[in-house]
Write a structure and sequence with these properties.
This protein folds into 2 domains: about 160 residues, 3-Layer(aba) Sandwich (Rossmann fold); about 140 residues, 3-Layer(aba) Sandwich (Rossmann fold), CATH 3.40.50. Helix 6 packs across helix 9, helix 6 packs antiparallel against helix 12 and helix 10 packs parallel to helix 11. The strands form 2 sheets. It has a 4-stranded parallel β-sheet, with helices on both faces. It has a 4-stranded parallel β-sheet with strand order 6-5-7-8, with helices on both faces. The longest helix is centred in the first third of the chain and has 18 residues. The chain is an alpha/beta fold.
């Protein structure tokens, strides 16, 4: 396939206080979530002036990727569309059509295979293509949890975090990896946990440490529905109660950028808990615009446009370019959503 554009496909996030409620209504459309739960989530955004970091981070990533592609002679204009907030995917597809674009590669801002991280983006693409007459074809890039560029970027972020600790505590500091919790039914029907575990193993090998624990964060949904555990804050409390170490590096390996779950759930909630318990906490950066990660994205693009070698570390190999029709189905949803508030992933 000769592609003539790249689409960065992301979740979207509010840009100011007036956007917060309309954004959350988009996120929760069709879901049985009480409005009071949504208003609790809105407070997370209001804590940061109503602005999610995710859109600015998409802009930074697009600028870095444009420079990388230009330097390597890859002539692909980059478009950007979101699932839940402007620029909306449908508007972007209409713009691509107006510009004469016919065949598009899409990079969804998610690393690991799951319904919400992969399959749902494929559904978004097909839904919008059904709404726009004569829309361009759109092929999604594969997932890449074990690509050397992603692993190198995350290993470097962990080294930087460790080096920020005083030398006397650095060597014995705990290194804990976090990812977004998902329903157990979603995890069981996708490679999500297996891919996360391999990424943790590969990053740990790069920094010369035994693999740290993989824990989860940002759980949502009804308390009766099982989700992946333990939660990062429960883990911190448990380790402290058992006399654990007093220095902790948290690595949000399941996130590509420092969006709301990272800056609120880790930098705010987990940090406050660590301060309360007397634990010195450092949060490692996400891949973001690390040069190794931007190079990783360029190499994924080159796989599809020129047949460049497919790269992978570990034993799981490379993910397929085209997902099987039955992979990563949506989770089984309970009849009602109660308990903890739903958290928007942006």
């Amino acid at each position: 396939m000769a592609y003539d554009a790249l689409l960065v496909l992301s979740f979207g996030g509010p840009e100011g206080t007036p956007d917060v409620i309309p954004f959350l209504e988009n996120v929760l459309h069709g879901k049985n979530v009480p409005r009071e739960r949504m208003l609790q989530v809105a407070e997370h955004y209001y804590h940061f002036g109503g602005k999610s970091p995710i859109n600015d981070q998409c802009r930074e990533l697009i600028a870095a990727l444009e420079n990388e592609l230009r330097a390597r002679g890859v002539a692909l204009p980059i478009y950007w569309g979101n699932r839940n907030w402007h620029p909306m995917l449908a508007d972007t597809v209409r713009q691509m059509k107006a510009d004469g674009v016919q065949h598009v590669l899409a990079f969804a801002t998610s690393v690991f295979g799951s319904y919400s991280g992969c399959r749902q983006y494929l559904e978004d693409i097909e839904r919008v293509r059904g709404e726009v007459a004569d829309a361009p074809t759109i092929d999604k890039l594969r997932t890449f949890h074990n690509h050397p560029g992603f692993i190198d970027a995350m290993a470097d972020r962990v080294r930087t975090a460790l080096e920020s600790l005083p030398p006397e505590v650095r060597q014995n500091a705990d290194v804990v990896f976090t990812a977004h919790s998902v329903p157990v039914s979603m995890a069981e029907s996708s490679p999500y946990v297996q891919q996360l575990q391999e990424a943790v193993q590969l990053v740990s090998e790069k920094i010369g440490r035994k693999p740290g624990p993989l824990v989860y964060q940002s759980r949502s949904g009804a308390p009766g529905q099982p989700w992946l555990e333990p939660d990062i804050c429960d883990y911190i409390r448990g380790q402290h109660a058992q006399g654990g170490r007093n220095a902790l590096v948290i690595v949000p390996i399941g996130f590509l950028s420092d969006h709301m779950e990272v800056v609120y759930d880790l930098d705010t909630e987990a940090a406050a808990l660590c301060e309360e318990l007397g634990i010195q906490m450092v949060r490692a950066g996400t891949a973001g615009v690390h040069p190794a990660f931007i190079s990783c994205l360029r190499q994924l693009i080159e796989e599809r446009i020129s047949g460049a070698p497919r790269q992978a570390l570990g034993i799981l190999g490379t993910a397929p370019d085209v997902c099987p029709a039955d992979c990563c189905p949506p989770p089984r949803r309970p009849a009602r959503t109660e308990g903890r508030p739903v958290r928007a992933t942006s």
